[in-house]
What does this fold into?
Amino acid sequence: MGRSEELFERACRVVPGGVNSPVRAFGAVGGIPRFVREASGASFTDVDGATFVDYVQSWGASLFGHARAEIVEAATAAARRGSSYGAPTEAEVLLAERITGAMPAVEMVRLVSSGTEAAMSAVRLARAATGRDLLLKFEGCYHGHSDALLARGAGSGVATFGIPGSPGVTEGAARDTLTAPYNDLDAVRAILDERGEEVAAVVVEPVAANMGVVPPAPGFLEGLRELCARHGALLAFDEVITGFRVARGGAQALSGVRPDLTVLGKVIGGGYPLAAFGGRRDLMEQLAPSGPVYQAGTLSGNPVAAAAGLAALDLVDRLDPYPGLEATAQVLAGGISAALASNGVPHAVHRFASLFSVFFTPGGEPVRDFEGARAADHAGYARLFHHLLDRGVYLPPSGYEAWFLSSAHGASEMERTLEAVASFRG
Ligand SMILES: *Cc1c(COP(=O)(O)O)cnc(C)c1O
It folds into this structure.
């Protein structure tokens, strides 16, 4: 028995399902999850000593790969000065300035510790600011696991385990969340025509990346902007994945669509627990202590996480990693698609900047929404996952997840990946 297997057995006795976040458990692909011993750059080594090219990268948090020297140094230096004070620090100001400087729609920002917390707080603010209760979200988009946002069709984690919403979410919470299919403006228009005056916010991943990668159809985000304006609802972009990943200014910079509220996480923490929500000044000023909307956190803006996040955003400014990521992603996605095609495996490779995913759809039909993602062959994805795992390449353990590139993925990682895919016959 390997060490991962032994640890997983022990974990299952003391931790529900053996993991602290469901998708880590390999439930969708079968087998024993690999326990990580250490990681560096594009790869990690498991507790049995096997090394894998890693396309999870902490679900996209590690834009510069694992244990990037500048980030490690910043975090350890900060830890030596004390791990948390419960009083403000300079790093929080610098990080807030960096975020607002990169995203013009984010005029003010508040730091929190997880994307879930950020999205949940943005929802509270939207409801308070509009005096309305309802939310509109999209099937297959994930915004963390707060009740309001888990209500229905909440993307990868939930989809992987086939749970419709979740037990424990009250009917009241579920009733206050309306859902529409992603990329379906007509559905949004119909819902808002009927109940638009009750909707506080339309919440959307501007590039859906929790049902595999599903880019917005041309005009979709622009249409949401216009419909929100017409009905007095706020538009909230969840850029927890896309912020500082698809571009320095996120998907809002690429689309030119200006949301009222923005939710950030993952990349801005440099791999540490840090997230943020921000937006229009008149909205953000309604938060306590400048306004009445309560929101707080013992570890919010934690100095170690803030130092790591700042170091990551310093690297963004200094290295401009996006052209390199784009080039790597293009070659890799193209190479994977070519290898599958030459083996006669029908598929659709979806890519948006350094995010991509592979759907095994009939005839290689592209996916536009959650229904399409669900119709893909997930048993086929599980076979691809294990085929690559056996060859030292670690994909997200679910066909509903995005594959994440880091700037540390280079020629040798690409070669290893494409070689592994070349022998996959479906
Ligand atoms: C990961 C994710 C979240 C939740 O962030 P956590 O830090 O895991 O709570 C929210 N929204 C999107 C789009 C995400 O991908």
Notes: The chain has two domains: 3-63+321-422, 69-319.
